[in-house]
Amino acid sequence: MERAREALAAMRSLLDTVREGGTEAARRPQPTLQALDLLAHQCRATGRDVEIRLTDRVPGRLPTAVDLTAYHAAETVLAASGEGPALLEFDAHEGSLTLTVTGVPGATRGLVRERLAARVAALDGTVTTGPADTVRLQMPLTPGPEAAGAPVAEQGDEEMGER
């Protein structure tokens, strides 16, 4: 019964967004790591087991480009992960924010991995995979000046390799 209520709440939220139209939605602020609870809630409403953790080392305020990229990377991973359980852990250490994802084999290869690589490459970040179904995104907390205006959208036509 509780899952049904959560699914209904998520569906209402989605319908409200669609009703408001594209121009209004385009003016809204982009989601950041502050919106991770809502993202996890929407996934759980579909019956998936999703856990998102932020360690105590993650600063309360991140550079905007890092914050947006980290959120969109989490969103990309969860959209591609199917129905199995997923764990996303954010940690900050030695000047970098790291997102470690386990339980999402689809994120370790193919188009999803390319999208993730494109997102973090704009910040001079890296994507590594393994062991098994683990993917790790690392983004510097002090991105270079070129990242300040870098788009966080997918760069589908550009060749983005692992750095």
Explain this structure.
It is built from four helices and five strands. The chain has helices at 2-27, 36-45, 64-80, 110-121, and strands at 50-54, 86-93, 96-102, 126-129, 134-140. Helix 3 (64-80) links the parallel strand 1 (50-54) and strand 2 (86-93). Helix 1 (2-27) packs across helix 2 (36-45) and helix 3 (64-80) runs antiparallel to helix 4. The longest helix is centred in the N-terminal third of the chain and has 26 residues, at 2-27. The protein is globular and about 40 Å long. The N and C termini lie far apart (47 Å).
Fraction in helix: 25-40%
Distance between the termini: 47 Å
Number of strands: 5
Strand content: 15-25%
Q: Largest sheet, described in full? A: 5 strands, mixed
Unreliable spans: 146-163
Question: Main sheet: which strands, in order across?
Answer: 1-2-3-5-4
Structural class: alpha+beta
Following the backbone from N to C, one meets helices and strands in this order, namely: HHEHEEHEE
Characteristics:
alpha+beta, 40% helix, 19% strand, disordered C terminus
